[in-house]
Amino acid sequence: MLKKTHECFTVSIEDNVAHITLNRPQAMNAMNKAFWNELPTIVRDIDRDALARVIVISSTGKHFSAGMDLSVFGSPGSVSNEGMNHYTAAEVFRSNIKQIQSSFNALEDARIPVLIACQGGVIGGAIDMISAGDIRWCTKDAFFCIQETNIAMTADVGTFPRLQRYIPEGWVKQMAYTGERLKADKAKEINLVNEVFDTQEEMMEHVLGVAKEIASKDPLTVVGCKTLINYARDHSTADTLDYIGVWNAGMMPHAHMKEAFTAMAEKRAPVYPDLGKLRDDPM
User: Fold this and answer.
1) Are 168 and 190 in contact (CB under 8 A)?
2) What is the CATH number of domain 2-215?
3) CATH architecture of the region 219-266
4) Domain locations in the chain?
5) Nearest alpha carbon to residue 123 among 103, 100, 147
6) Residue pair 112/168 in contact by the 8 Å Cβ criterion
7) How far apart are the first and last CA of the chain?
8) Where are the beta strands (DSSP E) in 31-73?
């Protein structure tokens, strides 16, 4: 097993499953400056180097995450607006937000599935984060809150374009307009999470079991599933069907299919090749 510790995360990789754990429970796993830099680097390294076939993200302590650490707004090295007019300062602010948004884009952009297990508070930026994953679960003590409204901000790191893909628009608006806490049972009812568990231990046993099942499948096929499901979300049925045809024409893994059938006939686990590594630079 590979294991590495960062300021905000621990990362372990075993049996083709990468497990990324938020590891600042003493700070309620608030998202400080290191968080925003470490997360996309970790995810992109796993994806680029084909180090795993699925990613699980979980947390430590009472809460999954309290969201943005307020120290980020005044951290050393942050850009000062002194000397800028309103419009120039606004453009800088927008560009800085885009950089923060890219940290969670890494979850959605990863070729492999990203599974998220939540306990306790999933607050503010944590809603942005889990919305960028593929599948979510939680414990019965979990609650979900678009906290930005409560501090006179508009959520800006991914909640609005992503959350309404999973839950009804009316619930997105109610959560956003009121800043209220959505409890675990209601999150399950409106499909924000797939299941609710009594304890974090039970949840992690289940989520890691799902991850291992995904990792046992042909990685290229799983990539195809994620790519085409996400494409279908943003395109018409006709466009999606055409793209599926193009995808299968170019990347249907006939040799992998043969291995699947052979393994079934021989009553053994199939053996599939890992994904290829990606370039580390554009050229």
Assistant:
1) yes
2) 3.90.226.10
3) Orthogonal Bundle (1.10)
4) 2-215, 219-266
5) 147
6) no
7) 32
8) 54-58
30 neighbors 257 (Cβ within 8 angstroms): no
Distance between CA atoms of residues 200 and 58, nearest Å: 10
Q: What is the DSSP string of 111-179?
A: SS-EEEEE-SEEETHHHHHHHTSSEEEEETT-EEE-GGGGGT----SSHHHHHTTTS-HHHHHHHHHH-
pLDDT: which is higher, 123 or 97: 123
- 58 Rama sector, left if φ>0, alpha if ψ -120 to 50, beta otherwise: beta
What is the H or E stretch that residue 237 is in? helix 237-251
Model confidence pTM above 0.70: yes
Query: Which amino acid, one-letter code, is at 149?
Result: T
Express each pLDDT in 194-245 by its tens digit.
999 999 999 999 999 999 999 999 999 999 999 999 999 999 999 999 999 9
List CB contacts of 46: < 8 A, sequence separation 6 or more.
Answer: 13, 18, 52, 55, 110, 112
Neighbour tally for 210: CB within 10 Å: 19
